[in-house]
């Protein structure tokens, strides 16, 4: 496989895996790494306190999924000795998945963020 096509396939599968895991973590209750700033502790849980931050856990999950997807796609393409050119079906299909997931993630997250109600914690 040419190097440019290999990089294109790896980048497309990384974006696809990253966005799929990021959306999955928002739509399905998933155990993630949470930081609780009031107690100054890290927790591995499906939900945190009212002021808990799950951004770090979601990013770690998404980066891991994207890296694994990219490594698997690159390994499979090398082991199958696929002779793809940049105009072949697979790289264009993976780029299409990446674009579709990007738009889906933007729409889903915009809807989720616009319909949530944040309840402030009680003051002492």
Describe the overall structure.
By secondary structure, this protein is mainly α. The protein contains three helices and two strands, in the order αββαα. A two-stranded antiparallel ribbon has the order 1-2. It is elongated. The protein starts with a helix and ends in a 10-residue tail after the last helix.
In short:
The protein is mainly α and 124 residues long.
> Whole-number radius of gyration?
19 Å
How many helices? The count is 3
Largest sheet: 2 strands, antiparallel
- Approximately how much beta-strand content do the residues carry? 5-15%
> Which strand order does the major sheet show?
1-2
What keywords describe this structure?
single chain, 124 residues, mainly alpha, two-stranded antiparallel ribbon, elongated
Element layout with pairings:
Elements: H1 3-27, E1 32-36, E2 41-45, H2 55-79, H3 89-114
Antiparallel strand pairs: 1-2
């Amino acid at each position: 496989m040419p190097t440019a096509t290999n990089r294109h396939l790896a980048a497309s599968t990384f974006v696809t895996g990253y966005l799929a895991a990021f959306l999955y973590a928002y739509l399905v209750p998933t155990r993630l790494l949470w930081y609780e700033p009031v107690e100054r502790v890290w927790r591995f849980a499906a939900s945190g306190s009212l002021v808990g931050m799950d951004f770090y856990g979601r990013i770690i999950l998404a980066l891991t999924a994207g890296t694994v997807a990219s490594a698997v796609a690159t390994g499979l393409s090398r082991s199958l000795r696929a002779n793809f050119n940049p105009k072949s079906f697979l790289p264009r299909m993976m780029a299409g998945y990446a674009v579709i997931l990007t738009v889906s993630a933007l729409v889903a997250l915009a809807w989720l963020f616009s319909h949530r109600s944040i309840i402030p914690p009680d003051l002492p």
